[in-house]
Write a structure and sequence with these properties.
By secondary structure, this protein is mainly β. The protein has two helices and 27 strands. The longest helix has 4 residues, at 10-13. Residues 10-29, 31-47 and 384-389 have low confidence and may be disordered.
């Protein structure tokens, strides 16, 4: 069961912003060019007691809008009154800013930054510096969005404490429907007064779904002789900091050609996408790593998965891949998902079903005998109500 070459739609690919490795996901969209903002260091400001802070952005459902882009240029923690740490502590800063579509994070969080050297102490609020609000769809589309202030102070229910050698996670849930208002004067403009729920948790980070992160491997973390590579240090884009990634025992690594590979395929300098959860120590426990870029393509299943792990797939119109193509599923390696984290068997890939394929389109063979194969890192079943248990 094979088709002739599946084609990449160049007109769309030219404008493609590579989106995440798995599911549902955009890359965590922080623009397309590098930031001049370096990782901020607070070391030496308040002594030698430090903890770790993970800062997430998320959004409640917003039916009026298709997209809600927000550009964050700085995030700070404001010390509580009477605490010794009097000055704000910057945990993220970028001159260009990190541009994020919040509506891609209705059921999951976007990790803005993990900061490892935050001075221990009590803090009263989180301060965001925001430069742009860009809605797509809804009553404020194509209108000027005014900010009462470029700095937004977000108050949890009570002050929180960063403990020495401990991790806290802060999740900022922004309610788009309640945050963007038309001017009462009737002028052609809107105003952004954010309504935000601040959720703070000590220890294990708040994560509705596994994190999907991209970045560059700075260095490898060696394990013992039997373990080999235990993990790596991942530099997040846009000056968002460095994160230690640990490889789970059953981690799946896909190489640059979309083939399953071992951890020995990883090396400093490689761009990767990583799926996993942040643990209580502020490290990401990785279940999957993909080297290089991936395509994310929606479409329909045309037949069952055969004995070679192949099934025929028809991309939707206006997708990055044009023309029917065979999708390769690697048994025990490719993630078959319902929602963001429920894994099912390849038998759930049913003819006529709607799916999202995340993987690499690779040429197999040479010349006239060559054909394209879409090698799947993940297959996301898009209609869970229609999928038999």
């Amino acid at each position: 069961m094979r088709y002739s070459k599946g084609l990449i739609n160049n007109s769309i690919l030219a404008g493609l912003v590579i989106i995440g490795m798995l599911l549902l996901i955009a890359s965590g969209g922080c623009g397309s060019s590098s930031s001049s903002g370096d990782v901020i260091s607070n070391e030496g400001l308040y002594g030698s007691s430090y903890g770790t802070v993970a800062l997430f952005l998320a959004d409640d459902p917003a039916d009026e809008y298709d997209n809600l882009w927000i550009t964050v240029k700085e995030a700070s923690l404001i010390p509580a009154e009477g605490d010794d740490n009097r000055d704000p502590v910057v945990i993220y800063q970028s001159d260009e800013g990190c541009r994020v579509d919040l509506l891609e994070f209705r059921d999951k969080e976007f990790l803005l930054t993990v900061k490892n050297n935050v001075p221990a102490g009590r803090y009263a609020k989180v301060r965001l510096s925001v430069s742009n609000i860009e809605p797509v769809g809804g009553p404020c589309e194509n209108m000027e969005i005014k900010l009462p202030s470029s700095k937004i102070d977000l108050n949890p229910k009570e002050p929180f404490r960063v403990e020495t050698d401990s991790t806290i996670s802060i999740s900022l849930d922004i309610d788009a429907n309640k945050s963007i208002h038309l001017h009462s004067t009737g002028s052609e403009g809107c105003i952004f007064r954010p309504e935000v729920f601040v959720d703070i948790r000590h220890g294990e980070a708040i994560q509705r779904c596994p994190q999907i992160l991209e970045g560059e491997i700075v260095s490898l973390v060696d394990g013992d002789a039997e373990e080999g590579i235990a993990g790596f240090i991942l530099a997040l884009p846009k000056g968002r900091g460095e994160l230690e990634v640990r490889l789970l025992d059953d981690v799946v690594v896909f190489d640059g050609q979309g083939q399953p590979a071992g951890a020995e395929a990883l090396a400093a300098g490689l761009r990767v996408k990583v799926r996993g959860r942040i643990d209580a120590d502020g490290r990401l426990q990785a279940s999957a790593v993909v080297i290089g870029d991936v395509l994310v393509v929606k479409g329909s299943v045309l037949g069952q998965v055969d004995g070679e792990g192949l099934f025929p797939f028809e991309p939707d119109s206006q997708e990055e891949v044009v023309g029917d193509v065979n999708v390769k599923v690697f048994e025990g390696k490719t993630l078959i998902l319902v929602g963001c984290n429920k894994q099912v068997s390849s038998e759930k890939i049913q003819e006529g079903g709607s799916v999202r394929i995340i993987g690499k389109l690779c040429l197999v063979g040479d010349g006239d005998d060559g054909y394209d194969e879409f090698r799947a890192v993940a297959v996301v079943l898009c209609l869970p109500d229609e999928i038999p248990e």
